[in-house]
Amino acid sequence: MYISASRAADGARPRSRLSWAVPGNVLALGTVSLVTDISSEMVTAVLPLYLTLSLGLNLLQFGLLDGLSFGVTALVRLAGGNLADRWQRRKLVAGVGYGLSALCKPALLAAGGSVAALGAVIAVDRTGKGLRTAPRDALISLSVPPDGLGQAFGVHRAMDTFGALLGPLVAFAVLMGTGGAYDAVFVVSFCVAVLGVLLMVMYVRDQRMPLPGPRSATSPRAAFGLLREAAFRRVCVVAAALGLVTLSDAFVYLLLQKRGGFGAEYFPLLPIGTAAVYLLLAVPVGRLADRVGRIPVFLAGHVALIAAYLVLIGPGWLVAVLALQGVFYAATDGVLMAVAGPMLPAHLRTSGLALLQTGQATARLFSSVLFGAVWTVWGSTQGLAAMAAGLAVCVLGAWSVVRRHA
After folding, report:
1. For 314-325, what is each residue's pLDDT tens digit?
2. Are 125 and 232 in contact (CB under 8 A)?
């Protein structure tokens, strides 16, 4: 059964007292994400400079590679989500995704300076992320009562973000200790990623739900049929529209480095500011969303992102931009999954979340390529102004749609 549109869109329970208890499976998945994010953020923290300074890629080439990461994820998520539901093996599909991403860390070294080879490695890495994200989020949503989803996703995202905070620090330490050797960062990242896979295998429990009928109940056609539900369709459209005018973190950090003029060796530290704010706010914002409504909190996060773009256009205060980015993630990442989860039947939970995430990822593919082209031709200020204006229009439009149909 689907939850009614008003409850699904809002998700608030103002008169109930929400429990602080978090199931062990959520904590196990959070630990896996924590360790994996240390590994992935080590690479993410150095990759923009590695590609643009070390290998000499221009901004359009970088935008294409950055967009590719979103595009491949979009293509794989639907297939991975459907397989996880069809087999009722969400842990297995997620584990394969974690394993693929781990193998890509040393493969970056083998790719050398070839744009095609780098694109292939990034594509495989994003394939791993695409496979694991929806099954992982489905496991969380199936392990928690509906009225505690905001808190549960907040706890998971807080643990995930703690890893994201540690990753750049580890990368910085490795670079400082090796005299700027990027290959050492990739090797250490691989070792940490393997630990994450082992934790997944040993401690995460699968959540299998009996199918309500034949295998066709979890077919791709049944998954796309979820879009016939008006409430879920509106959430997908809103998420995709907002993703189309959302800059990737890589571009934000490149802009901060360009305008701040600080040394390249400090670049890996930039994500720490965002991660620290996200870590502090993920759980309280998740609980707030459970109480006052998830959609308003989700849209408020995008308002914070508009403010970050305006600061970046103007004075470019580094701390303010990173803090606003952190607020954005705390109010949107897990909250969006908490919005959508109760709208979806258990046997199609992974497919539905994958469908939602695919729309976002596809939109961000176009966003990265477009911004890379605009920066190359007209400059970063014009690109930022266009993104801020587009985001403001989309937030107003989204609120109008949600308010009318809630």
Report:
1. 776 888 999 999
2. no
Tell me the CA distances in angstroms from 233 to 96, 230, 297, 341, one per residue in order.
29, 5, 19, 13
Residue 144 CB partners (closer than 8 Å, separation 6+):
22, 23, 26, 152
Q: How many CB atoms lie within 10 A of CB 124?
A: 15
H helical segments located in 314-377: 318-340, 349-377
pLDDT at 244 over 50: yes
* pLDDT for res 209: 66
Q: Residue 173 pLDDT > 50, yes or no? A: yes
Q: Where are the alpha helices (DSSP H) in 143-269?
A: 149-178, 182-203, 220-224, 230-243, 249-260
Token representation of residue 124: 């495989």
* Whole-number Å distance between alpha carbons of 72 and 81: 14
Average pLDDT, the chain: 82
R_g over Cα of the chain: 20
Give the pLDDT band (50/70/90) at residue 257.
confident
pLDDT for the residue 73: 66
Find all residues with CB under 8 Å of 27, minimum gap 6, and list them. 155, 159
**Amino acid code (one letter) for 301:** G
pTM: 0.71
For residue 249, the model assigns a pLDDT of 86
- Indicate the burial class of 378 (C-beta count within 10 angstroms; 0-12, 13-18, 19 or more): exposed
Structural domains of the chain, ranges and CATH numbers in brackets: 24-203 (1.20.1250.20), 221-404 (1.20.1250.20)
- Residue 52 host element (H or E): none
- Helix, strand, coil share of the chain (percent; to 5): 85, 0, 15
Query: Tokens standing for 164?
Result: 């994201």
Q: How far is CA 260 from CA 189, 213, 305, 308, 365, in A?
A: 28, 59, 20, 15, 27
Closest by CA position to 255, among listed 54, 48, 75: 48
Count of helices and strands (H, E) across the chain: 15, 0
